[in-house]
Design a protein that fits this description.
The protein is an alpha+beta fold. It has 2 domains: 209 residues, no CATH class; 153 residues, no CATH class. It contains 15 helices and 10 strands. Strands 1-2-3-4-5-6 form a 6-stranded antiparallel sheet, with helices on both faces. A hairpin with a 5-residue loop joins strand 4 and strand 5. Helix 5 runs parallel beside helix 7, helix 9 packs antiparallel against helix 15 and helix 10 packs antiparallel against helix 12. The longest helix has 21 residues.
Length: 384
Amino acid sequence: MILENLKNLFKIFKKSRINPKSNNMTLESFKALPDIVRFMEEPDCHWQQSIKPNTPQFKSDIVLEYTYYPSSFESDNPEEDKASLKKIKAKNIFEPYEKTFLEPFNIGFLSDEDKKNDGEYNLILMYFGVPSFGEFKKYFKTLGLMFYLIPSYYEDGTMNVAVFYNLNPCLPPFETVVEAKVLDVNTQNEYEKYYLKAFTEAVEIVCNEFEIVTEKNQGKFVKSVEEAPEKLLEEFIEIVGVKGFRSEEEIQVFKQNWHLIQENPEKYKEILVDEGYFDEDSEVDIPYFTQHLLSELLLTFNSDWKVDYDDLSQFISEEIQQEFTIKDKEMWQIAEKIEKESDFTMLNIDTQMDSYSLFICKKSEKERVLEIARKLDFPIEARF
């Protein structure tokens, strides 16, 4: 039954048509994409680049691969490739790429002569993991996103980069190509808006790493610098406003227990067992220990997936000190509404289960909270 539901869910994304106007997205919204392609094309650049995001909004490294079609999509078994092409009714090995990525935008194909001489298409694969979203949360904790960056050129030599995405990268390579959909900045689909936002954030992180100027970074590139954990912990306590509702003694206990988790997690396990929060027979679980510690320190709204939205509305109203009503019931929509209507935002402590542990902080401190969380391995996220 679960497998059938998953199949139906993936079918949702097969039905929408490509809007050729979406190709303009790269000119208006992602002007840095040609520079990313050029960076990957440099002779001294390794064909694969892996970037560790400094934010818990990503559940994996951001990986870019400079690759070629069809050679990089072929397996070691020609018969399997032949069967895969037959399954998708492709007349030849180039057809999946050309029909999916080039034909909708009237991009020219390689000539027959070029193909006979082992000519290929170049592209960049970009993939990473993000917290699962919507219906996918029932089946996956992390959603793997794969994007295809397809370069083409105008007559004046200007490069354009079209972007496609695939939600099912576990398919055979040729099938992943025909399943790909264009990433449309004008989409009204809430899922596609989520992927678009994730991609945009990933592009900014990549540009910071490659030192590519964007409107956002203005040529100011931030390189990760090791910061003392103790100082980060003090800053975290300060910017989430803990001192406004916890005593100095409670804060000291939090610090001591955090150090205990780092140095002697078995001892902290004993504390949780004695308090009835942990099973004595279970193995040490540092992510759970950290999540529990944070949930005790912060003022949190804790709920399973059946959220009482009246209670949540009251919690938010009290925290932001103004009346707040919930209309859209996706957590990310609620967080966006808080940011639009107040100086605050909402973040989540990842419980590793189908539940929430939400807290409110100043939106001006949001990015720094997430950055510190990443560095201290705090399971705090801005996606729900």
